[in-house]
Amino acid sequence: MSQTYKNLGNRDRSNEYLEKYTVLNDSLNMVRLRSMDFPVKQILEETDISNNRQKKSLYLVIVLIFSIGIIVLILFYINQRKVKKKMKLYLSYKESLILEKDEKIEKLNSKIDESSFADLIVLAKNNDSSFFLKFNEFYPEFSKRLLEINPKLQVSELTFSALIFLHFSTKDIADNTFVTISAVQLRKNRLRKKLNIGSDVDLYLWMNEIIYQDKK
Fold it and tell me: What pLDDT was estimated at residue 57?
């Protein structure tokens, strides 16, 4: 219409319709832009909502995994404490059994030693030839120490020394070996000389200390 009025030479009407056209066209463009903007905003909003949901889901998964990990650690700790407690009880029980067994063995050995020592004394009193062998089983270091001092000592002298070590008196030795008291005293004096024991030294005490002295 604007172009028609322009061809007819009516500029005022032409400009009027041109302005109306421009306003109408701008309005249409605005409506078109608004109609296009709505779907874009909707898509963006839906995208944001979807992202938020994914973030929440991821957060829940992380929290769930962390919670499960904590629970597993707690259960593991509780189980370890139970295992340690059971192990401690087992070791304590085992230790008590070992101690009980050791006590029984010690008592048995004590009874055996007492019985064997009593047998040794009987052999000495009976002047039995096996006395010296039995004595060496009880005190293996005794004869070794005496022979270190004097390697020329005879078995009879070592046997006599063993009787002194066991605290048999001069009279007891005389009665058990069927000799006189003076003969026993004479053998003691000879033994002192062979072992370099002074007359002022207690022979019985010296014999008992010899197995505890360090080797020179």
Answer: 78
Structural domain contains residue 13: no
Dihedral of the CA atoms 18, 21, 25, 26 (nearest 10)? 60
Q: Do residues 195 and 149 touch, judged by C-beta distance below 8 A?
A: yes
Residue 207, domain CATH? 3.40.50.2300
Quote the CA–CA distance of 135 and 142 in Å, as a whole number: 9
Rounded to whole angstroms, the Cα distance separating 62 from 54 reads: 12
Sign of the torsion angle spanned by Cα atoms 116, 119, 121, 127? negative
User: Residue 2 falls within a domain, yes or no?
Assistant: no
The Cα–Cα gap between 13 and 3 comes to: 10
Mean pLDDT of the chain: 79
Longest CA–CA separation in the chain, Å: 183
**pLDDT value at residue 16:** 67
Residue 127 is given by DSSP the state T
Structure tokens at 135: 């004595």
What is the total count of domains within the chain?
Answer: 1
